[in-house]
Automatic annotation (TrEMBL):
GO terms for molecular function: FAD binding; monooxygenase activity. Keywords: Monooxygenase, Oxidoreductase. It comes from Actinomadura namibiensis. Residues 5-337 form the FAD-binding domain. This is 2-polyprenyl-6-methoxyphenol hydroxylase-like FAD-dependent oxidoreductase. It holds the Pfam family FAD_binding_3. The keyword Oxidoreductase applies. SUPFAM superfamilies: FAD/NAD(P)-binding domain. The keyword DNA-binding does not apply.
Length: 398
């Protein structure tokens, strides 16, 4: 008889968990509180470790067909247009950039039909026996395992980890936009639209090509407090960086006002465990982090693969969750700390520190940087996923 799971949350991490669980022979039901799926976050990039995790799910080739190469981590400029670092011609792999909705759809289509429920708001959860029960409105779902992938403001974490501190503001905010262009971008487009990062004092602008003629941009800026909003967020972004080098003004001009989102950047303080009985936190519910290492979605997909591999090979759910916590918590918490430090260095440094950073980048030859960067990123990018059998070798019992 198949083991059963309830996955709370239908974002990238939740859907990846459902795909992974079905791949090892479990029956997973996804409960998503939104009435319908809408685009959240606009764009993202995946590094090699995340792509390997998708390979383990059998989705790597499809993801590579959808994603667009981006050199944003290797092409850095000043607001006036000066080059701090140039992307290499060869030897260093680019990241792969996606419109978030495209990656989400890829995962959604990989979940068996009828296994995703929208408009399902979880109100309570019982996890004090061999099974767990999720209460959703007037309906109950009982399963051998509950995977809570319900985001940074996780209902599950609040119910079962009541003493956990709330998400904390990291003193910066972001404008996220999608520019619709009338010419190709990415490998077939102009060099300035193949992905880049522009560093200003207290501000940075990221550019990723995410479609044949679509470019995702993110303006990150230091902020004293969350919740500040403007009547026209596109106009505010233009006020801040509209005089920066091209293609920044052109991208802002090509962005419809309704394609701009404003978010404040928070992280989830570290937990002492990601597991409560037969409930496992996954993705942002466990380790929401700043975007400064580009690892939020990737770490969620890694979580899904590791969890499924443990369930497929350990004798009990308890043993599997113990292994999942042991393998995932140190890696994700180290990654979150690294991302936080990177964001502080770029956005919350003083004038002198900003000038020192840009000077060191300018004085380091791009060829040298492109040799050093893979070594520095190796702990993140060189991660290898466990293999997932098509069916569990030792189906975990309660």
């Amino acid at each position: 008889m198949s083991r059963t799971a309830v996955v709370i949350g239908g974002g990238i991490g939740g859907l990846a968990a459902a795909v992974a669980l079905h791949r090892i022979g479990w029956r997973a039901t996804v409960l998503e509180r939104a009435a319908r799926f809408e685009e959240v976050g606009v764009g993202l990039s995946l590094s090699p470790n995340a792509l390997r995790a998708l390979d383990a799910l059998g989705l790597g080739d499809r993801a590579r067909a959808v994603g667009v190469p981006t050199w944003a981590t290797h092409a850095m400029r000043t607001p006036s247009g000066g080059h701090l670092m140039r992307a290499p011609d060869q030897g260093v792999p680019p990241l792969l950039a996606f419109r978030r909705a495209a990656l989400h759809q890829l995962l959604l289509k990989a979940v068996p039909d009828g296994r995703v429920r929208t408009g399902a708001q979880v109100t309570a959860l019982r996890a004090n026996g061999p099974t767990a029960t999720v209460i959703c409105d007037d309906e109950e779902f009982t399963a051998d395992l509950v995977v809570a992938a319900d985001g940074i403001h996780s209902t599950t974490r609040g119910l079962l980890w009541p003493d956990a501190p709330p998400p904390r503001f990291l003193n910066y905010t972001a404008w996220l936009g999608l520019a619709e262009l009338d010419h190709p971008v990415g490998p077939d487009g102009p060099p300035e639209l193949r992905g880049s990062m522009t560093l200003g004092r207290g501000q940075a602008l990221l550019i990723h090509p995410v479609g044949a003629r679509q470019t995702y941009w993110a303006l990150l800026a230091a902020a004293d407090r969350p919740g500040v909003r403007h009547p026209d967020e596109l106009a505010e972004a233009r006020r801040r960086v509209g005089a920066w080098h091209q293609p920044v003004p052109a991208l802002l001009d090509a962005t419809p006002a309704d394609q701009v989102r404003r978010i404040d950047i928070h992280e989830a303080p570290p937990l002492s465990t990601f597991v409560h009985r037969n409930v496992a936190l996954l993705g942002d519910a466990a380790h929401a982090m700043s975007p400064d290492r580009g690892q939020g979605a990737g770490q969620s997909i890694e979580d899904a693969v590791v969890l499924a591999a443990a369930l497929a090979t350990e004798p009990t759910v308890t043993d599997a969750l113990t292994r999942y916590d042991r393998e995932r918590r140190p890696r994700t918490q180290t990654t979150a700390e690294s991302a936080r430090r990177a964001g502080q260095q770029v956005l919350n440094a003083g004038t002198a520190a900003h000038h020192l950073t840009t000077l060191s980048l300018r004085l380091t030859p791009s060829a040298l940087w492109n040799r050093l960067a893979p070594r520095a990123l190796a702990p993140l990018w060189d991660w290898q996923p466990p293999s997932l059998p098509d069916q569990p070798t030792h189906p975990a019992s309660p």
